[in-house]
Design goal:
Elements lengths: L1 H10 E5 L5 H9 L7 H13 L1 E7 L2 E12 L2 E9 L8 H16 L3 E7 L6 H12 L3 E10 L6 E9 L4
Parallel strand pairs: 4-5
Antiparallel strand pairs: 1-2, 2-3, 3-4, 5-7, 6-7
The chain binds coenzyme A.
Coenzyme A binds next to β4, α4 and α5.
């Protein structure tokens, strides 16, 4: 496992996303139905095109992405992030986040924020997602009760934040 991980990480190239990346990013998102429902995919159709971000390439194939927008003065927000499922836990998300952090620091942002599904929702896929962000120094900022979903199927949103700085 450790050897596979090292091989993948060394071969992965991260670069700023370009317009032509949209179809590949959207295909990755469609391959993650445990995380992205129909509503999410619909929003992504616009935001993956209009938001800035980075793409991860493995031997010429796009295998992951992260996008962001400016949320407020000095605050950037991750809008979408995804890595091809069979390549999870190989360090690709970490590399994408590192590139985003460096880019945002250069642009003068001090805080990076991300919204996700709150702990009150007992759903394993988003437990992994939260673990990923906690591992990368995001801290709980706020919980918005019943933010997601409709009528009888509402659930809480967790807003995570981290301070950007050069280590
Ligand atoms: C979140 C995501 C982008 C992270 O990318 P990644 O390349 O898998 O992440 P890394 O390999 O760099 O980091 C792995 C860490 O993430 C967490 N993690 C990610 N996937 C996990 C899984 N299936 N099981 C357990 N932990 C997981 C763990 O903390 C893990 O650390 P560990 O391997 O030391 O235990 C990716 O897992 C993904 O596409 N998830 C589905 C979509 C999503 O949640 N997007 C974010 C919301 S918009």
């Amino acid at each position: 496992m450790v050897i596979i991980m090292v091989v993948v990480i060394e071969k992965v190239k991260i670069r700023k996303k370009v317009d032509e990346d949209f179809n590949s990013m959207f295909e990755i998102a469609k391959g993650l139905p445990e995380w992205f429902d129909e509503g999410g995919l619909k929003t992504m159709q616009t935001e993956l095109k209009t938001h800035g971000g980075f793409a991860a390439y493995l031997e010429g194939t796009l295998v992951g992405f992260v996008t962001f927008n400016a949320a407020a003065e000095g605050i950037a927000k991750i809008s979408w992030m995804g890595v091809r499922k069979e390549l999870h836990r190989r360090g690709i998300g970490t590399r994408l986040l590192q590139s985003l952090d460096e880019y945002l620091i250069d642009l003068g942002f001090g805080i990076l924020e991300v919204d996700t599904v709150a702990e009150s929702v007992d759903y394993e896929p988003y437990e992994f997602t939260r673990n990923f962000y906690y591992k990368h120094k995001f801290k709980k900022h706020r919980v918005d009760r019943d933010f997601y979903g409709e009528l009888n199927n509402k659930h809480d949103r967790l807003v995570l934040r981290k301070h950007l700085r050069i280590d």
